[in-house]
Amino acid sequence: MTQLALREFHVFDAAGGRFLYLVPSAGIFQIDEPSSAIVDLLDRGPCAPEKIVHDLSEQYPEDRLRNGLLELQQIRAIGEAGAPQEQVVNDLPPDGFPITTMVLNVTNKCNLACTYCYEYGEDKIVDTTCSDQPKFMADDTAQEGVELLLKESGPLEVAHLTFFGGETLLNFPVLQDTVAYGRQRAEELGKKIEFSLTTNATLLRPDIIEWLAENEIGVTVSIDGPKEMQDRMRVFHSGKGSYETVQPKIKELLKRHKTRPIGARVTLTRENLDIHRIYEHLTDEMGFWEVGFAPVTTASGRDYEIENEGYERMLRQFDELAHDWLEHAVQNKHHGFSNVKDTLEEIHKGVSKAYPCGAGLGLMGVSTGGDVALCHRFAASDDHNFGTTEDGIDRDRQRQFLEDHHVKHKTDCHTCWARPICAGGCYHEAHTRFGETTAPNLHFCNWVRTWTHTCLEVYGELSARNPDYLTRFDH
């Protein structure tokens, strides 16, 4: 006799209902009470369909139970016991997959000496002080980067170019020239390039702010919060804190630059986990449109490493901010917690990742000398080189990278329900922690699963209380 069993999904409750997040497809379905009862019964082990109906018939009408069985099978939440588990598909991207974003590391110098910096601190991949890479990217190299982006973006009408460092604004003249060149070349080809940059804000001047606003440059400011938090690790080479320098400059930037939203990026460390205070300061007091938080990338044992209790504290505050975001969204109000917005967009679009991010796929980083790398964090690393701006991308090397780093090869990811969102985690985190970009970030698993569950709950609540809000994620 045929018996039915549960397949791969994650259960969550929201808005008084029960939902299934179907792992292979990344689909979300709300189930009614009879279907929920079927799931609970099968959670105890395989069972024949007729027995399921018989055992639950005193609680629910037979026709609703049979409909529930049919629907659960159609969405592949249940299936024949003993059937092979659905395998992670080896869906390598097609040849010529377009590059959507190019990150130009226009300098490898910085006027700050942040303790935890992945580029200059204890965990650096490339020692730029001793390498033969130029300290500043030249105009011709930046223009080659533009040409490579326009070529490799293929049929896309819009491509994205981000300026990075070091401290990006140390090479401001090249930024100006590159934006002018990129706009002209894109127009000639019937395309558009959207430009953005990341800065520590120390070098913002009125003329630079004016240029950013007039040219609609997206800006992300690296800042860790109010003075006592910012000055703990984001310091000048003299050891002096940077808050008093950047605070008035950021205020002027936010006052003048209205053509693109200005975001803050916060690095969280063991000593910097008062997320509510940081968020309130950066949004209410400083005026940032949105704030994104990221745990510090570091090898184990560093003084600033976040440990277990720190992650629990971080998750509690993330959960509270996420539900605050929800209450704003229900009322169609803006809330600047970008972590929840970004994850909800992936959930809404049914993202099921084979790779954790676009690095090496739709995004690549360019060093000051023109080497094309996996991403900006690997710029100038010979082990992660995919070509040059002059010679183009080595597609064979890229394809081998994508084959080696597919989620199907990552230990434990096969059985994790959160893999459509995570796919093993950041390559740079893996390299820093384990020495290999192929390693899954197993130390983050509880964090990823807990945060994804929270975002699924928020998504379920919003889908019931203000479903129209979700349409803004359609684009």
List keywords for this structure.
475 residues; alpha/beta; Outer Surface Protein A, domain 3; TIM Barrel; three-stranded antiparallel β-sheet; 15 helices; 15 strands; globular
Your description of this structure?
With 475 residues, this protein is of the alpha/beta class. It folds into two domains: 4-84, Alpha-Beta Complex (Outer Surface Protein A, domain 3); 101-387, Aldolase class I (TIM Barrel, Alpha-Beta Barrel), CATH 3.20.20.70. It has helices at 33-42, 49-56, 62-74, 139-152, 172-188, 206-214, 227-233, 243-256, 275-285, 308-330, 338-348, 395-404, 419-422, 427-434, 445-465, and strands at residues 4-6, 9-14, 17-22, 27-31, 78-80, 101-105, 158-164, 192-199, 218-222, 262-268, 290-295, 363-366, 371-373, 385-388, 392-393. The longest helix is centred in the last third of the chain and has 23 residues, at 308-330. The radius of gyration is 24 Å and the shape is globular. It starts with a strand and ends in a 10-residue tail after the last helix.
Shape label: globular
Number of self-contained structural domains: 2
CATH fold description of the largest domain: TIM Barrel
Reported for the largest beta sheet, the result is: 10 strands, mixed
**N-end to C-end Cα span:** 48 Å
Q: What is the number of E strands?
A: 15
Helix content: 25-40%
Strand order of the largest sheet: 11-10-9-8-7-6-12-13-14-15
Instruction: Kindly name the structural category.
Output: alpha/beta
